[in-house]
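Below is a filled-in request sheet from our internal design queue. Each sheet records the structural input a requester submitted and the sequence that came back. We keep these sheets so that new team members can see what a complete request looks like end to end.

REQUESTER: design group, bay 2
PRIORITY: normal
MODE: inverse folding
CHAIN LENGTH: 368
BACKBONE (tokenized):
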């Protein structure tokens, strides 16, 4: 509700009432002050942003608007407003509330002459807008672009280097095994890129709520055996053992083969990536209404501190052994989205330097 004292002739009152309802219907907070930066009028949205329900008319703006700059230093509001000889706009200010929450603020300050040039005093009109959500989307987007471009650059550089080498060696008639080796390195990097692009595509569809679930009958034995076959060379290449346990009483389940495979692949690739010694175990057991899959490893493990964060977008552990490997921190975030689409339940146990086990119960859904 716009607060101000109305006085004057009838047409002037009508005019002001129009103005009042106009300002009150604005989503942005509006505050008008006199030339000493004392509040003359304000609307309800301004009170919301200031988190106040008291009458603030007549008070000095700096007593009720405590701003912080982007480095969290207090801003002298009086000085800021008085310094606005022409309209100024900032998107870098913040307000900290008593409950320790913070909002990002758009603030515009315009010096004005009230009363359209006659009689009125000079003052200022301040517009406030909560842009916390926009800001966090902007930050997320910037971070996303920087992480993805970094992740793309490394494999492309390695692949490019190896292909150039292979070309040179072919021209010089070098031993074929050396050429093959270089091409193998390049091939691995291209495969990594394909996986990354796949994750990004799934992520983008998931974020737009565009993931569709095609339910089909899945033969769990075949699925696990197929995965084991695909990953065996990589597991052996790292000197690890691959163990498979399949419940003989397993029955087919109805779910999305595409997503179940993607979920298991994410767990398996992680377990290979974060294990240097020992084994990877994949198991599938029959459970009431579905299947319980387990992927466990004897790898580096996840610290208690990191355990609450591994499903966050872009999260990668600070552990030096994680840093040695390449990754985007998107795999488990995407996995969690897929799990919820399939109404699946998941849990994990992990101990540093001992290993990690992810358990997923995939329910059998109705065929559509
Ligand atoms: P990425 O593997 O690309 O970094 P993920 O989202 O798949 O991203 O995993 C997030 C983080 O969780 C990893 O960076 C790693 O720190 C941790 N993590 C996931 N799986 C394992 C595992 N099996 N063993 C140890 N750490 C793991």
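RETURNED SEQUENCE:
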């Amino acid at each position: 509700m716009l607060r101000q004292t109305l006085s004057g002739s009838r047409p002037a009152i009508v005019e002001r009432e129009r103005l009042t309802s106009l300002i009150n219907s604005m989503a942005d907070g509006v505050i008008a002050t006199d030339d000493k930066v004392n509040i003359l009028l304000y609307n309800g949205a301004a009170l919301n942003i200031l988190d106040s329900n008291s009458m603030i008319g007549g008070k000095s703006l700096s007593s009720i608007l405590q701003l912080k700059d982007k480095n969290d230093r207090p801003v002298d509001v009086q000085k800021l407003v008085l310094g606005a000889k022409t309209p100024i706009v900032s998107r870098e200010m913040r307000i900290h509330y008593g409950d320790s929450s913070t909002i990002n603020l758009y603030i515009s300050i315009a010096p004005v002459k009230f009363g359209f040039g006659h009689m009125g005093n000079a003052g200022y009109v301040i517009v406030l807008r909560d842009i916390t959500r926009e800001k966090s989307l902007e930050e997320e987007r910037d971070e996303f672009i920087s992480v993805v471009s970094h992740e793309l650059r490394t494999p492309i550089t390695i692949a490019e280097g190896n292909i150039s080498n292979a070309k040179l060696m072919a021209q010089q008639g070098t031993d074929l095994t050396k050429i093959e080796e270089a091409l193998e390195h390049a091939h691995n990097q291209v495969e990594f890129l394909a996986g990354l692009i796949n994750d990004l595509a799934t992520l983008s569809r998931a974020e737009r709520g565009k993931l569709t679930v095609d339910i089909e009958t899945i033969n769990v034995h075949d699925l696990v055996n197929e995965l084991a076959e695909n990953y065996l060379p990589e597991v052996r290449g790292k000197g690890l053992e691959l163990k498979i346990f399949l419940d003989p009483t397993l029955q087919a389940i109805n779910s999305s083969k595409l997503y179940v495979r993607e979920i298991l692949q994410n767990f398996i690739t992680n377990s290979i990536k974060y294990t240097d010694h020992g084994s990877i175990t994949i198991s599938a057991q029959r459970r009431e209404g579905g299947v319980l899959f387990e992927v466990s490893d004897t790898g580096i493990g996840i610290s208690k501190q990191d355990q609450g964060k591994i499903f966050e977008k872009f999260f990668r552990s600070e552990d030096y052994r994680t840093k040695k490997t390449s990754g985007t921190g998107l795999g488990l975030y995407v996995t969690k989205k897929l799990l919820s689409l399939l109404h699946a339940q998941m849990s994990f146990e992990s101990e540093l330097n001992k290993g990690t086990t992810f358990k997923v119960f995939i329910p059998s859904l109705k065929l559509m």
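SHEET NOTES:
- The first strand starts at residue 29 and ends at 34.
- The two ends are 53 Å apart (CA to CA).
FILED BY: M.R.
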